[in-house]
Please model this.
Amino acid sequence: MAWNKWLIVCIMALVSGGCVPSYKLNGSSIDYSVYRTISIENFPIRAALVYAPLQVTFENALVDYIERNTRLQTSVGNSKADLQLEGEITGYALSPVSVGSDAYATETRLTITVRVRYIDNRVEGKDIDQTFSAYRNFDANEMLTDVQDQLCDEISKELVELIFNATLGNW
Model:
């Protein structure tokens, strides 16, 4: 009986101790009193191998993620925005990952690389010019055309999270 009373006293002391952790649910660290707008430019494909739908897939994923996870007003081509994201898709490459005993590839890797320039028009010294890369492997027996859309979607989502964390997430 005494054990239960002691446990209750300890829990109450912890709860009323004034130490309350604070969490941001979206992972961003944006001061909305300073930043209200973000301009997201087109990300043209500058890779040697081109898959045209990738540009739209990536751009839509980027805009959707920022709109879902921030209160920033998004626009395109607004050089007077508080923040700017621009860049290009610089790599779209296929490479064998593993080779079987018959000297043929058993898995193929699709790698997408994006160069991003993040410009903070309010605070100097916070600009970023960085390259991000992500990949997915698929069975070499599958045709790229059969899995390409799904892989581009998955890779784009991963790239967008990496970009968000490096820029707006400020980890």
